[in-house]
């Protein structure tokens, strides 16, 4: 066994350091989902509002 | 007892009591006065007020104890945190022992939760305050600024939506707005993105998807802004269209922040996960 690894309580598989209390793998997935949804929405809003009239494209 | 039978259990208790009381050497009368209020289950605001006035002239540990007790009472059961600030900060900035000063900074932070500007002045800008508490105040200040900016941007988005709808109506282009609102690709995006993300989040951890559904509602309002803007100015110069584009993008970010902030208040700690 590696002596440098700290002993974790029973049932705890890994401990990750991070910016907040929600830094578990589940928390990261939720953050990622929300971040992706926001980013996609920003791109949608930016592009859709800048599009010209449909008839102008012709 | 300490001399006759130092090994007796009572001698141990007496020694511990002597050790505690020796910290108050020369202030036993004040300690008795403080204990009379501290142990009274009926100590009301008037009793705490009287103690606060009397204890101002005290010195040493009993003074710090009294100030902490007064501050704790105002923060807690008397529900008047503004009156806890002065005694808490007095102890925090005194030469009391580190445990008392730590408790005092905690109480000052609790008392200033609803007054972020003063918390910034009194705690975040004071190098004597413990770094974790200063960091918490800085976070509150950051969140207040983000809240104000997000609210202003959301308000601007709402105003511009109405303005664009008015311009579209005046230019007889409301039918184009309606057509754009019903665009199936845009509608699918507005409905599916938050819904799927929310369902996935809920599947990962029950309750974590709740922030996504209000975001979907906000996205629908942004869709209205986008459609109204295109209806009003879709045939205008690129600069006008880009102005709407930037506003709409900012509205999405502002709405996301407000949704996360609201989620935080309801126990979905996502803001912290984003380092906010």
SSE topology sketch:
The complex is a heterodimer of chains A (58) and B (276).
Chain A: H1 25-50
Chain B: H1 9-22, H2 28-38, H3 45-55, H4 60-75, H5 85-92, H6 98-111, H7 116-124, H8 131-170, H9 174-181, H10 184-204, H11 212-233, H12 238-265, H13 270-273
Helix pairs in contact in B: 2-3, 2-4, 3-4, 4-5, 4-6, 5-6, 7-8, 8-11, 8-12, 9-11, 10-11, 11-12
Report the C-alpha radius of gyration of chain B, rounded.
30 Å
- Say what oligomer this is: heterodimer
Segments of chain A where pLDDT lies below 50 for 5+ residues? none
Find the count of extended strands of chain A (DSSP E, 2+ residues): 0
Average the pLDDT over all residues of chain A and give the rounded result.
74
Alpha carbon gyration radius of chain A: 22 Å
Counting structural domains of chain B, the number is: 2
Total E-strand runs of chain B: 0
Kindly estimate the percentage of residues of chain A that lie in beta strands according to DSSP: under 5%
Q: Helix segment count of chain A? A: 1
Detailed description of the structure:
The complex is a heterodimer of chains A (58) and B (276). The radius of gyration of chain A is 22 Å and the shape is rod-shaped. Chain A is built from one helix and no strands. Chain A is mainly α and 58 residues long. Chain A has a domain at 20-50. Chain B is an all-alpha fold and 276 residues long. Chain B folds into two domains: 9-129; 142-273, no CATH class. Chain B is 75% helix and 0% strand. Chain B has helices spanning 9-22, 28-38, 45-55, 60-75, 85-92, 98-111, 116-124, 131-170, 174-181, 184-204, 212-233, 238-265, 270-273. The model of chain B has no long low-confidence stretch (mean pLDDT 89). Chains A and B meet through helix 1 of A and helix 10, helix 11, helix 12 and helix 13 of B.
């Amino acid at each position: 066994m590696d002596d440098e690894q700290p002993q974790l309580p029973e049932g705890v598989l890994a401990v990750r350091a991070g910016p907040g209390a929600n830094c578990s793998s589940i928390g990261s997935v939720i953050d990622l989902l929300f971040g992706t949804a926001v980013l996609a929405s920003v791109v949608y809003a930016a592009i859709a509002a800048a599009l010209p009239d449909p008839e102008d494209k012709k | 007892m300490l001399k006759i039978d130092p090994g007796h259990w009572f001698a141990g208790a007496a020694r511990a009591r002597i050790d505690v009381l020796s910290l108050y050497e020369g202030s036993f009368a004040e300690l008795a006065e403080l204990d009379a209020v501290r142990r009274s289950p009926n100590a009301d605001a008037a009793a705490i007020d009287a103690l606060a006035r009397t204890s101002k002239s005290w010195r040493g540990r009993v003074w710090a104890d009294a100030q902490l007790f007064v501050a704790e009472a105002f923060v807690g059961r008397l529900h008047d945190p503004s009156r806890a600030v002065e005694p808490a900060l007095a102890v925090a900035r005194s030469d009391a022992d580190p445990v008392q000063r730590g408790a005092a900074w905690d109480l000052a932070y609790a008392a200033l939760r609803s007054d972020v500007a003063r918390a910034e002045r009194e705690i975040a800008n004071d190098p004597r305050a413990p770094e974790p508490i200063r960091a918490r105040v800085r976070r509150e200040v950051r969140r207040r600024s983000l809240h104000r900016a997000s609210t202003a941007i959301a308000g601007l988005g709402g105003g511009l939506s109405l303005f664009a709808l008015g311009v579209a109506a005046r230019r007889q282009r409301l039918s184009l707005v309606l057509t754009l609102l019903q665009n199936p690709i845009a509608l699918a995006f507005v409905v599916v993105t938050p819904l799927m993300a929310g369902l996935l989040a809920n599947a990962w951890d029950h309750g974590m998807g709740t922030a996504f559904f209000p975001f979907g509602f906000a996205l629908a309002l942004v869709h209205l802004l986008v459609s109204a803007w295109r209806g009003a100015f879709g045939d205008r110069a690129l600069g006008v269209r880009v102005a709407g584009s930037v506003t709409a993008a900012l509205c999405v970010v502002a709405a996301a922040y407000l949704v996360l902030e609201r989620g935080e208040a309801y126990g979905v700690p996502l803001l912290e996960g984003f380092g906010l």
